[in-house]
Target: Minimal PKS chain-length factor (CLF/KS beta)
Amino acid sequence: MTVSRPDRRAVVTGIGVVAPNGVGADDFWKATREGAAVLGPVTREGCGELPLRIAGEVRGFDAEAAVEGRYLVQTDRFTHYAMAAADLALEDARFHADEGSPFAVGVVTAAGSGGGEFGQRELQNLWGQGPHFVGPYQSIAWFYAASTGQISIRGGFKGPCAVVASDEAGGLDALAHAVRTIRRGTDTVVVGAAEAPLAPYSMVCQLGYRELSLSEDPDRAYLPFSAEACGFVPAEGGAMFVVEDEGAARKRGARIRAVLAGHAATFTGASRWEESRHGLAHAIRGALEEAHCAPDEIDVVFADALGVPEADRAEALAIADALGEYSAHVPMTAPKAGTGRSYCGAPLLDTAAAVLAMEQGLVPPTPNVTDVCHGIDLVTGFARTAELRTALVLSRGLMGSNAALVLRLGEAS
Model:
């Protein structure tokens, strides 16, 4: 039986981003700290007649340049994003797997929708032309675990691999899974999520969410914590990380960017936003306890920020419940208001932004929001300078999951 060792701390050494506001951590952070809003009309083929008009599309991403041809034909757009982000994270970490120790590296990804675009295309071929026009990769490309599988095969990573099939909060749960994997003895885990929900089949499925914004104005479609909040805007993309055992990372001279200090998760049921107050507060308390972190040590909160009035109010109350009177003074932000919510990828983009914010001493603003409600200190307009040592990242899923993650600023090796 594998024994968990709490003394093995999990640290972030590499960040890779494919997002609507930038490909690569540098471009992503520049746009995020400037509060760039990149939401716009949906341009994906076949989506023009659907009532969902505004989304966060990844633009300027060249799949053929980022992913080898033999993998492109086997995989959906969501896996292209994940593989590219994984490459960027490995490059950022300056990590090269030891060919003699392939079992020292694992892979964990989260997925909420899988490869809808690939699956739809193959099913159209099936019904329009017959079974001989359906490719063999239909059986794997749509699957939630496709990104985990392809990243591990492509990199030769034979350590513990997993997929978290969940709603939005699954992105943070994937990081927690990586931490547990590190504690059980694996030295390195490539972990994260990327989504590609902007295809006709996927978008029709999303139209069942009452929380979805159907606004046609990119600047007013997603306004969390605002009096004008009318729902959320979906998005593509996500982030991948290289997470290592701190001892192994220091041994190879890696830069310790952040410590994954604490995580907790709860479940309160689909669209029960008032009840999410108690579930999210319990998750925050659990993450603080695991991190041995007092409420007044939290320097910034990256909010879930659904953009639904009752959900936003519940989140503000949950933070107050968990942090006490200090909650009125801690700065909060929701950069995703400018990029959209990429489901499982959304909290991982927030995690990337949180690490970069701590390194730069800047709380990025919440784009487009001007009239802040619910008595919170939401950073808007421009980035705010602050000493940031500890960050809290929050996520809730439309199906009822709640998760909280405590990050601490890393130290140079």
In short: The chain has 13 helices and 16 strands.
